[in-house]
Design goal:
Layout: H1 7-17, E1 26-30, H2 35-46, E2 50-52, E3 56-60, E4 63-72, E5 75-78, H3 80-86, H4 90-112, E6 124-128, H5 136-146, E7 152-159, H6 162-169, E8 174-179, H7 199-219
Parallel strand pairs: 1-2, 1-6, 6-7, 7-8
Antiparallel strand pairs: 3-4, 4-5
Protein backbone atom coordinates (compact mmCIF):
# COMPACT_ATOMS: atom_id res chain seq x y z
CA UNK A 1 0.00 0.00 0.00
CA UNK A 2 3.06 2.28 0.15
CA UNK A 3 2.02 5.74 -1.05
CA UNK A 4 4.85 7.96 0.20
CA UNK A 5 8.59 7.55 -0.36
CA UNK A 6 9.40 8.77 3.15
CA UNK A 7 8.26 11.33 5.74
CA UNK A 8 9.68 14.26 3.78
CA UNK A 9 7.72 13.24 0.70
CA UNK A 10 4.58 12.89 2.84
CA UNK A 11 5.18 16.35 4.29
CA UNK A 12 5.36 17.91 0.84
CA UNK A 13 2.07 16.26 -0.09
CA UNK A 14 0.43 17.63 3.07
CA UNK A 15 1.93 21.07 2.48
CA UNK A 16 0.12 21.35 -0.85
CA UNK A 17 -3.16 20.44 0.86
CA UNK A 18 -2.51 23.10 3.52
CA UNK A 19 -1.45 25.88 1.14
CA UNK A 20 -4.46 28.07 2.00
CA UNK A 21 -3.08 28.50 5.53
CA UNK A 22 0.05 30.27 4.34
CA UNK A 23 0.15 33.67 6.03
CA UNK A 24 0.72 35.40 9.35
CA UNK A 25 -0.55 33.97 12.62
CA UNK A 26 0.14 30.32 11.72
CA UNK A 27 2.31 27.96 13.79
CA UNK A 28 3.25 24.39 12.85
CA UNK A 29 3.73 21.86 15.67
CA UNK A 30 5.02 18.37 14.97
CA UNK A 31 4.48 15.33 17.18
CA UNK A 32 7.91 13.82 17.94
CA UNK A 33 9.52 11.99 16.77
CA UNK A 34 8.11 10.78 13.46
CA UNK A 35 5.84 13.75 12.93
CA UNK A 36 8.69 16.27 12.95
CA UNK A 37 10.19 15.59 9.48
CA UNK A 38 6.65 15.76 8.06
CA UNK A 39 5.94 19.00 9.93
CA UNK A 40 9.27 20.46 8.76
CA UNK A 41 8.17 20.28 5.11
CA UNK A 42 4.81 21.85 5.99
CA UNK A 43 6.44 24.70 7.92
CA UNK A 44 8.94 25.29 5.11
CA UNK A 45 6.21 25.52 2.47
CA UNK A 46 3.98 27.76 4.59
CA UNK A 47 6.90 29.90 5.81
CA UNK A 48 5.62 29.27 9.34
CA UNK A 49 7.53 28.72 12.59
CA UNK A 50 8.03 25.09 13.60
CA UNK A 51 8.12 23.60 17.07
CA UNK A 52 7.48 20.26 18.75
CA UNK A 53 4.60 19.11 20.93
CA UNK A 54 5.86 16.03 22.81
CA UNK A 55 3.26 13.33 23.36
CA UNK A 56 3.52 9.70 24.46
CA UNK A 57 1.33 6.70 23.81
CA UNK A 58 0.36 4.58 26.83
CA UNK A 59 1.06 1.05 25.65
CA UNK A 60 -0.51 -2.02 27.21
CA UNK A 61 1.91 -3.85 29.56
CA UNK A 62 1.76 -7.10 27.58
CA UNK A 63 1.48 -5.49 24.14
CA UNK A 64 3.11 -2.06 23.98
CA UNK A 65 1.88 -1.45 20.43
CA UNK A 66 -1.71 -1.49 21.68
CA UNK A 67 -2.55 1.91 23.18
CA UNK A 68 -4.89 2.37 26.13
CA UNK A 69 -4.36 6.13 26.16
CA UNK A 70 -1.75 8.85 25.82
CA UNK A 71 -0.13 11.72 27.69
CA UNK A 72 0.90 15.21 26.60
CA UNK A 73 1.99 18.27 28.59
CA UNK A 74 -0.67 18.77 31.27
CA UNK A 75 -2.92 16.01 29.91
CA UNK A 76 -3.42 12.30 30.67
CA UNK A 77 -6.05 10.36 28.72
CA UNK A 78 -6.89 6.77 29.68
CA UNK A 79 -9.46 4.76 27.73
CA UNK A 80 -11.19 2.84 30.52
CA UNK A 81 -13.05 0.64 28.07
CA UNK A 82 -9.74 -0.54 26.64
CA UNK A 83 -8.13 -1.10 30.04
CA UNK A 84 -11.11 -3.20 31.19
CA UNK A 85 -11.09 -5.22 27.97
CA UNK A 86 -7.36 -5.89 28.31
CA UNK A 87 -7.56 -6.54 32.06
CA UNK A 88 -4.99 -3.88 32.93
CA UNK A 89 -4.89 -3.18 36.65
CA UNK A 90 -4.71 0.28 38.23
CA UNK A 91 -1.18 -0.49 39.39
CA UNK A 92 -0.13 -1.35 35.84
CA UNK A 93 -1.79 1.81 34.49
CA UNK A 94 0.06 3.95 37.06
CA UNK A 95 3.36 2.24 36.27
CA UNK A 96 3.04 2.82 32.52
CA UNK A 97 2.03 6.47 33.03
CA UNK A 98 4.97 7.09 35.38
CA UNK A 99 7.44 5.65 32.89
CA UNK A 100 6.05 7.63 29.97
CA UNK A 101 6.05 10.85 31.99
CA UNK A 102 9.79 10.48 32.47
CA UNK A 103 10.29 10.17 28.71
CA UNK A 104 7.85 13.02 28.03
CA UNK A 105 9.81 15.29 30.36
CA UNK A 106 13.09 14.29 28.71
CA UNK A 107 11.71 15.24 25.30
CA UNK A 108 10.30 18.54 26.58
CA UNK A 109 13.72 19.48 27.91
CA UNK A 110 15.53 18.37 24.76
CA UNK A 111 13.20 19.81 22.13
CA UNK A 112 12.09 22.97 23.92
CA UNK A 113 15.45 23.76 25.46
CA UNK A 114 13.92 25.45 28.50
CA UNK A 115 11.59 27.66 26.42
CA UNK A 116 8.46 25.92 27.69
CA UNK A 117 5.25 25.31 25.79
CA UNK A 118 5.20 27.02 22.38
CA UNK A 119 3.33 30.33 22.24
CA UNK A 120 0.13 29.55 20.41
CA UNK A 121 -2.52 31.79 22.01
CA UNK A 122 -4.68 33.38 19.34
CA UNK A 123 -2.89 31.56 16.51
CA UNK A 124 -3.89 28.97 13.96
CA UNK A 125 -1.96 25.84 14.89
CA UNK A 126 -1.30 23.10 12.37
CA UNK A 127 -0.59 19.96 14.38
CA UNK A 128 1.26 17.36 12.31
CA UNK A 129 2.00 13.66 12.75
CA UNK A 130 3.26 11.01 10.33
CA UNK A 131 0.00 9.05 10.56
CA UNK A 132 -3.06 8.25 12.60
CA UNK A 133 -2.95 4.74 14.04
CA UNK A 134 -5.24 4.72 17.09
CA UNK A 135 -5.86 8.45 17.47
CA UNK A 136 -4.75 8.34 21.12
CA UNK A 137 -1.72 10.61 20.77
CA UNK A 138 -3.65 12.99 18.50
CA UNK A 139 -6.40 13.32 21.10
CA UNK A 140 -3.91 14.02 23.90
CA UNK A 141 -2.01 16.56 21.80
CA UNK A 142 -5.20 18.41 20.86
CA UNK A 143 -6.39 18.47 24.49
CA UNK A 144 -3.00 19.80 25.63
CA UNK A 145 -3.05 22.46 22.94
CA UNK A 146 -6.58 23.60 23.84
CA UNK A 147 -5.28 24.61 27.28
CA UNK A 148 -3.13 27.27 25.59
CA UNK A 149 -6.02 28.98 23.75
CA UNK A 150 -5.13 28.75 20.05
CA UNK A 151 -7.52 30.36 17.60
CA UNK A 152 -7.83 27.20 15.49
CA UNK A 153 -6.43 23.66 15.62
CA UNK A 154 -5.88 21.92 12.28
CA UNK A 155 -4.67 18.34 12.62
CA UNK A 156 -2.77 17.10 9.57
CA UNK A 157 -1.48 13.61 8.80
CA UNK A 158 -0.49 11.87 5.58
CA UNK A 159 -2.48 8.72 6.37
CA UNK A 160 -5.12 7.45 8.78
CA UNK A 161 -7.97 4.96 8.73
CA UNK A 162 -11.29 6.58 7.91
CA UNK A 163 -12.76 5.70 11.33
CA UNK A 164 -9.85 7.20 13.27
CA UNK A 165 -9.82 10.32 11.09
CA UNK A 166 -13.54 10.76 11.81
CA UNK A 167 -12.86 10.42 15.54
CA UNK A 168 -10.10 13.05 15.47
CA UNK A 169 -12.37 15.38 13.48
CA UNK A 170 -14.61 15.50 16.54
CA UNK A 171 -11.68 16.87 18.59
CA UNK A 172 -9.89 19.26 16.21
CA UNK A 173 -11.38 22.21 14.32
CA UNK A 174 -10.29 20.64 11.04
CA UNK A 175 -8.50 17.49 9.95
CA UNK A 176 -6.46 17.20 6.75
CA UNK A 177 -5.50 13.66 5.76
CA UNK A 178 -4.08 12.71 2.36
CA UNK A 179 -4.99 9.00 2.47
CA UNK A 180 -7.94 7.53 4.40
CA UNK A 181 -8.13 3.76 3.84
CA UNK A 182 -10.92 1.88 5.58
CA UNK A 183 -8.36 -0.46 7.16
CA UNK A 184 -4.87 0.58 8.30
CA UNK A 185 -3.01 -2.02 10.33
CA UNK A 186 0.11 0.14 10.73
CA UNK A 187 1.12 3.64 9.66
CA UNK A 188 4.33 2.25 8.15
CA UNK A 189 2.27 0.50 5.46
CA UNK A 190 1.90 3.85 3.71
CA UNK A 191 5.66 4.47 3.47
CA UNK A 192 8.43 2.92 1.40
CA UNK A 193 10.92 4.14 4.02
CA UNK A 194 9.58 4.34 7.57
CA UNK A 195 12.90 4.32 9.41
CA UNK A 196 12.61 5.48 13.02
CA UNK A 197 13.35 9.17 13.50
CA UNK A 198 16.16 9.97 15.96
CA UNK A 199 16.39 12.77 18.51
CA UNK A 200 19.18 14.33 16.42
CA UNK A 201 16.97 14.38 13.32
CA UNK A 202 14.26 16.12 15.33
CA UNK A 203 16.73 18.74 16.54
CA UNK A 204 18.11 19.20 13.02
CA UNK A 205 14.59 19.88 11.70
CA UNK A 206 13.75 22.31 14.52
CA UNK A 207 17.05 24.18 14.21
CA UNK A 208 16.86 24.21 10.43
CA UNK A 209 13.36 25.69 10.51
CA UNK A 210 14.42 28.40 12.97
CA UNK A 211 17.42 29.30 10.83
CA UNK A 212 15.17 29.51 7.77
CA UNK A 213 12.74 31.79 9.59
CA UNK A 214 15.59 34.09 10.67
CA UNK A 215 16.90 34.29 7.11
CA UNK A 216 13.44 35.04 5.75
CA UNK A 217 13.00 37.90 8.25
CA UNK A 218 16.36 39.38 7.26
CA UNK A 219 15.34 39.37 3.59
CA UNK A 220 12.07 41.20 4.22
CA UNK A 221 12.07 44.82 2.93
CA UNK A 222 12.33 47.45 5.65
Amino acid sequence: MAVFQNRSDAGRVLARMLARYRGPGVVVLGLPRGGIPVAYEVALALNAPLDALPVRKLGAPRNSELAFGAIAPGVTIVNRGTTRWLGISEEEIARVIAGERIELHRREMMYWGGRGFPRVAGKTVILVDDGLATGATAEAAIASLREHRPLLIVFAAPVGSSAIVASVRSKADEVICAEEPEVLHAVGQAYQDFTQTSDQEVLDCLNGARAGQSAAREEEPV
